[in-house]
Amino acid sequence: MSLYQNGLKENVQLAVVMSNIQFDSLRSMQAMALRAGQTIEGIRQARPAPHPTPSTSTSVPAPDPNAMDLSAFQRGPRNRLSDTERARRVQGNLCFRCGQAGHISRGCGNQSPPRQPPRPQQSHPAL
């Protein structure tokens, strides 16, 4: 009977031990273990699912206004050459920036000027 008891789920084992019943047969232990398992499962199903409580320790810290914006150092996908276009320009010794021969992108004179921020429009005509 101890082999059977050791094979039970832990919570059913505890219920069998806590009952303080001296079992005279394996059948009586099985019947008690079955009732205990059904009772425990009924209690478990009757409970509402636990909801995680919000924790204040996992709050997101406020952003540092003096922190450096690292995204400024990342190159975006703008003006990226496709693999085939890149291979064509390498094969033809062409500039990666403008596509013309005779120089490389570092020395390209056909660079677009830096973007100027838009000027605010005046709401009244100038006199």
UniProtKB/TrEMBL annotation:
The keyword Zinc applies. Residues 95-108 form the CCHC-type domain. Transmembrane segments: none annotated. GO terms for molecular function: nucleic acid binding; zinc ion binding. Keywords: Metal-binding, mRNA processing, Zinc, Zinc-finger. One of its GO terms (biological process) is mRNA processing. This is CCHC-type domain-containing protein. It comes from Puccinia sorghi.
